[in-house]
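re: the backbone from monday

yeah here it is again, tokenized this time
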């Protein structure tokens, strides 16, 4: 699975679907990350979030698309970002993180890999660390139909593993995370939740 094939048009496509809320959704975690020591961003796409994060010690930007990393490098003003081109499931971290951000990452997988991703995130966090998730949740029939089309589109162009939208929130809570806060976008279709 690689988003290299859609990197050049990713933000434009997302803006067509979500309008001006696309940037708001991507940047939603910024304020909550202020003052954190070490932050890991998994599947950060084109890095819209990065320039809004202030007052952190270090950011690791983990992405499985070299073209997405190149776009992010071109837009990012931060000096303390380590760009890592790697598969999250294969990547071996040498440290734990105060916060992990997963923007539109968890929806990429089927049930088994989704659970593996959440368990790995838990293992990579310090004891009182936070998991920040921005993603889709079931909504109206029309929005669910749009999701099905998006899955098909990204499966064809990027080899997306997931085939249907799963209940991400339920699984995150099942793996011993408690919700701290929530912001909903697009009439509840997209959520930003902080778990600890």
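seq for it, each position gets an aa:
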């Amino acid at each position: 699975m690689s988003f290299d094939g859609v990197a050049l048009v990713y933000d434009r496509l997302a803006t067509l679907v979500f309008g001006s809320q696309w940037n708001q959704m991507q940047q939603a975690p910024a304020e909550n990350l202020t003052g954190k020591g070490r932050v890991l961003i998994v599947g950060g796409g084109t890095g819209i979030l990065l320039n809004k994060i202030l007052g952190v010690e270090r950011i690791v930007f983990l992405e499985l698309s070299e073209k997405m990393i190149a776009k992010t490098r071109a837009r990012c003003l931060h000096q303390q970002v380590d760009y890592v081109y790697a598969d999250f499931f294969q990547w071996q971290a040498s440290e734990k993180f105060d916060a992990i951000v997963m923007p539109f990452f968890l929806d990429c997988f089927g049930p088994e890999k989704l659970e593996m991703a959440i368990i790995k995130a838990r293992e990579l966090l310090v004891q009182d660390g936070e998991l920040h998730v921005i993603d889709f949740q079931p909504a109206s029939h029309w929005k669910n139909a749009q999701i099905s089309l998006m899955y098909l589109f990204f499966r064809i162009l990027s080899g997306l593993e997931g085939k249907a939208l799963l209940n991400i929130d339920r699984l995150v809570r099942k793996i011993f995370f408690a919700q701290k806060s929530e912001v909903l976008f697009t009439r509840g279709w997209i959520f930003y939740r902080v778990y600890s």
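Residues 67 and 150 are 20 Å apart (CA to CA). The mean pLDDT is 85.
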